[in-house]
Design a protein that fits this description.
Structural class: alpha+beta
Radius of gyration: 14 Å
Strand order of the largest sheet: 1-2-3
Largest sheet: 3 strands, antiparallel
Number of domains: 1
Distance between the termini: 23 Å
Number of helices: 4
Shape: globular
Order of helices and strands: HEEEHHH
């Protein structure tokens, strides 16, 4: 299944579930960065390849912002639109947004 076909949660739901998106070093590959998504409970939800997100930003309207704070905010916005449903199914059930 491609990323385009993978069911993602709605943006508004992602905003409620996600506590932070942190840029980190990949655990097994040096010189590779990932954007790790943490829930409001501080548990890791999923991660995205930072290069993929930055490439998507470059292709989007407006491109990559020059200001670092704006760049981080835009990366987080992109990530929040792409949280896979499988990664948060248990959290959705706990919040009463979905039945198991």
């Amino acid at each position: 299944m491609s990323a385009e076909e993978m069911p993602c949660i709605p943006y508004e739901v992602a905003k409620k579930l996600v506590g932070a998106v942190m840029e980190e070093e990949h655990l097994h590959e040096s010189n590779r960065r990932v954007l790790t998504v943490y829930g409001t409970n501080d548990q890791e939800i999923c991660w995205f390849d930072a290069e993929d997100i930055f490439a998507e930003m470059a292709e989007s309207e407006g491109g990559i912002p020059k200001n670092e704070d704006e760049m981080k905010a835009k990366a987080v916005e992109l990530v929040l639109h792409q949280i896979p449903k499988w990664a948060v199914e248990d959290l959705l059930v706990k919040m009463g947004l979905e039945r198991k």
